[in-house]
UniProtKB/TrEMBL annotation:
Keyword annotations of the record: Membrane, Transmembrane, Transmembrane helix
UniProt keyword annotation of Transmembrane present: yes
Organism: Neobittarella massiliensis
Lipoprotein found in the keyword field: no
Lineage top rank: taxon: Bacteria
Protein name listed in UniProt: Bacterial Pleckstrin homology domain-containing protein
Length: 470
């Protein structure tokens, strides 16, 4: 009964388990002959691994990883409610994977930074010094003012109130669309204020370097979230009046929501590149050496070394991205991989959304010579002259799906059914009976969401074929 839920929960648990394993693997000390030890991704002298401060930090890290894993199970609770809607279940899994990957990266970056700070404090340097200091004389840029969020909030709240009060032809989809936009806008505002108060990242021993690099990050990211909220409000306002001026199809509404949900992800990747480029320009202004080693290139949560021409380096346990984001080749490959995954998942989701939120159309052509079926990617047709018999049945169909889609609400596509062999099935569970159409080489089973619609289809088939109903 809950097969889809079991499959999706299993996939989610595998993904969360892999991230947990990757994070815990970084807490195991790795020692290579002739090289220092590595713990939490930080390179340490062998004798420093057993330092009480290090062991206490690693123990706390492990506990945090397990707490995060158990906390990551909470988003799985609503999955049984999506059993009848595979598209929403898949969307849930995609966003769950993104959440788990982002959470794992954030935790790894945070604890890597803590151990690295301890290493710097005790001067446990294992490699050659790296030139990474700077002379900053200009005033660091300020973060964007929160007042820039006000127009977006006013548009979102106004749209939501209008959707609640308006008696439009779209029914529940109008407040759903407006409510989703309001929730997204509030999310942008939360990210904006979080970015203003984000913990500072250490780039070198020079406080001016850290102040400048963190200020650039705050300015660009707060500007990004404020600008994204404004652009999103404008686009949603236009879509709102386009979609709900007349009664829209549900798949059009959900397609618009999905497209507007993917846009921030791509924009975030772009602004991340802008932030790194600005910080790279700052770090290139100085030639004074600071006491650090190659660990400094992993402080941003991934490898970022403008002095290394390689686009990819050896992976470090705990880190999920080993592309050198300071090189054009590394950035291109990483962003191409992310964009490819998002486009692939988005295409699948759009396909499933159309099946879940549109009704299959089964109708005869104007001359009654063909039965045309429009079923969200499983379109098909057959000639009424080929029909050998018509029957009505409520018997449960059982068999194997060989090229179709099914949920508890519908079955579309090619099936191999017991007692019938190769068959085409287009049925809805909400109708307790279906029409069985015998063709020379296969059976076709048809029903629509209501008995009245199915009875009307049966009458049209009888008139077109002239056959009695068995």
């Amino acid at each position: 009964m809950f097969l889809m839920t079991i499959i999706l929960v299993g996939c989610d648990l595998i993904g969360a388990g892999c991230v947990l394993y990757n994070m815990l693997s970084s807490a195991r000390c790795t020692v290579h002959p002739g090289t220092p030890s590595r713990l939490l991704g930080v390179t340490l002298p062998g004798w420093a691994v057993d330092d009480p401060q290090v062991t206490a930090l690693v123990t706390a890290y492990k506990k945090t990883c397990w707490r995060a894993f158990w906390l990551s199970l909470l988003p799985l609770v609503p999955l049984p409610l999506l059993e009848d809607y595979p598209s929403l279940g898949l969307l849930h899994t995609i966003f769950y994977y993104l959440l788990v990957l982002w959470g794992g990266s954030a935790l790894q970056k945070r604890w890597f930074g803590r151990l690295y700070a301890l290493k710097q404090k005790n001067v446990w340097v294992t490699g050659e010094p790296v030139v990474a200091a700077i002379d900053i004389t200009e005033q660091p840029p300020a973060a964007i003012s929160p007042w820039w969020l006000l127009p977006s909030l006013l548009v979102a709240v106004g749209m939501f109130l209008h959707a609640l009060l308006a008696a439009g032809p779209a029914g529940v989809w109008q407040p759903v669309f407006a409510g989703t936009h309001l929730a997204v806008t509030l999310g942008f505002c939360a990210l904006f204020f979080w970015q203003r108060r984000a913990p500072k990242t250490t780039f070198s021993k020079d406080p001016a370097v850290n102040t400048a690099c963190n200020a650039v990050s705050r300015q660009l990211y707060t500007g990004f979230w404020a600008g994204l909220a404004a652009a999103d409000s404008l686009l949603e306002l236009i879509l709102y009046f386009i979609l709900f001026g007349t009664a829209p199809s549900s798949w059009a509404v959900l397609t618009a929501l999905l497209a507007l949900s993917l846009a921030p992800l791509l924009g975030y990747l772009y602004i991340g590149h802008r932030v790194q480029a600005a910080q790279r320009q700052i770090l290139a202004l100085d030639t004074r050496p600071a006491v650090c080693d190659d660990d400094v290139y992993w402080l941003s949560g991934h490898y970022y070394n403008p002095r290394d021409s390689r686009y990819k380096v050896e992976p470090r346990p705990g880190f999920q991205n080993c592309y050198n984001m300071a090189t054009a080749g590394g950035r291109r490959r990483f962003y191409a991989m992310v964009a490819g995954i998002l486009l692939f998942c988005g295409a699948i989701c759009l396909f499933l959304v159309r099946m879940d939120f549109t009704t299959a159309e089964i109708a005869l052509s104007p001359d009654r010579s063909t039965v045309e079926i429009d079923a969200a990617g499983f379109d098909w047709s057959f000639a009424t002259g080929e029909v050998q018999s018509l029957a009505v049945s409520s018997e449960h169909l059982s068999g194997t799906r060989v090229g179709g889609a099914s949920s508890r609400r519908y079955n579309f596509g090619n099936f191999n059914l017991k007692g019938y062999g190769p068959s085409r099935v287009y049925t809805y569970a909400s109708c307790p009976w279906y029409i069985a159409v015998e063709l020379p080489d296969k059976w076709v089973f048809l029903s629509l969401p209501t008995q009245q619609q199915t009875k009307q289809l049966l009458d049209e088939l009888q008139r077109a074929t002239g056959l009695p109903v068995q």
